[in-house]
Amino acid sequence: MLYLAQVRKDNFLDQYELCLLARQEAGDIWAVITGKSRILLEKTMNITEKLLVLVETSPTGEIEKIEDPTAWIMHVVEAYLGYGITPEVLRQEVERAENWRQSLTLQNQDLARRTLELEARRENMQALEENLQRQALALEARHQEIIALEKKLKVSQDDQTKD
Length: 163
Hints:
The chain is of the alpha+beta class. The protein has helices at residues 70-80, 87-162, and strands spanning 2-10, 15-26, 29-32, 38-40, 52-57, 63-67.
């Protein structure tokens, strides 16, 4: 496994150690190592404190290779910080970002318009529903009136047939 590490001196053991800062997950994907993760170096190694190094370890955790990270750091700078971007490429990227921003603005405006339309439709449907409920109540009241009138009429007819 490949790690980015910093050389530090352990004063208690009077020995240099590698403080692991990040580990390569896959390709250009690295994960920051939190907490204290250290590898003691052999006392015979001639190395400078606070030096950044790339260290490759075996599956058992033994150091296989220590190398200068300069080439790797330059790769990171070029890949992620835009080192070597020409003004033309930068202009194209800015134009592409501006077009993207304008497109998002238009989509946002369209979404806001649709939201307002849906809200108006919802309010209209609520008003229609309330109107239908009022009409249903009025019809129910009239229905009850008709039933009451029919009962009166029947009673009146029954009274007339008895006479």
